[in-house]
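Recall that a protein's primary structure is simply its ordered list of amino acids. Everything else, from secondary elements to tertiary packing, is in principle encoded there. The following example makes that idea concrete.
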Amino acid sequence: MRLSTSWMFQQSVNQMLSQQSALAQSQNQVSSGQRINVASDDPAGAGQVVSLNHVIAQNNQYTSNINAATTSLNTEASTLSSVYSVLDNARTLALQAVNGTLSSSDQQSIASQLQQMRGQLVQLANSTDNNGNPLFAGTSSVATPFQVSGTGAVTYAGNNGQQSTLIGSGLQVVTGDAGAGLFMNIPTGNGSFAASAGAGNTGTLLVGSNSVTDIAAWNSGLASNGGSYTITFGANGTWAATNASGAAVLDSSGNPVTGTYTDGGSISFNGMTIAMSGTPATGDTVSVQTGGKQDVFSTLDNMISALQSGGSNVQVTNVLSRQIESLDQTQSAISATQVSVGGRLSTLQSQQTTYADLNVTYQAALSDVQSADPYTAISNLSLQQTALQASQQLFAQVKSMSLFNYIK
């Protein structure tokens, strides 16, 4: 086989180019600290790098979502705590007002304080998160969910949706609660029914605490009596109960429900008990209504109106007692939401810890695949530099030789 000079030169050049390419790759590994800088360095490893980087980026996004959700929920928790405190102060004032010994000026002073608290509640209900989004608008984009009309009435312009954030594959956490369930649609009375003294009563009857004492009898009575009752007093404390249709309420034996009330006693029938005090006049009534809803702003309005009405202590006390029950229901709703928010914050913290641990694992795996061993990389670089220099020196010697060197 004939070996030409140009062929030998080309082979030497190709060899040096290959060595230069390998040297450049080693230099890149030493300077970057990574074994895989382009996919051609290790196609299989490059695929692993892409996959691991995708998982790490996804976890980082989830962590970012968790941070944002934590901030929002902490803001909500702080706001709910303030709301609860305002309601507690209003309840304390209402209890002061039902003792029957306050003067008219004292009642006016309490009414003024309640008005300030009402304004504070509206402001708290319209609180926003760190991005300026309302906390209690549900999923609505309305900027001010609780709007005050010219007459002072408060309406809710948000919706009943719950804001949520994705914090994992198929895992969402609620980051905002609708204001309707917290401030507007609050059950009246004890949550099952509201017992109220008639507005036209002329006696000294005060309706006290009340509750469902037998749930089965209560449900059965509601089904047969239309969900409401009226207790009408006769002479000497005698009373009889009628239903929503005005017909007599019957006991299990089919007899009309009647009885005699004494001061400080209670009236019980169809699974409920209503404590009372004072003396009713003939014709005085107590109504029992189920399923009622009332917003907390109306609750405060009713308190304020009663204190400013100039009515008798009995009338004011009966109104305030029912509104205190409504405040209790509102506080229960706020408290339940606070517990829920605390649970969600705990979930976020747990998930954040999980992602922090996973990131350490994924980063270690990525380093194993992508990072270059510095000792090996430097050793290869040194060997490749020596080999390239040797090839260059050899080529220089071969290039200077000719046939005349052999004829000498």
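The chain has three domains: 1-33+383-408, 41-188+294-371, 194-291. DSSP finds nine helices and 14 strands in the chain.
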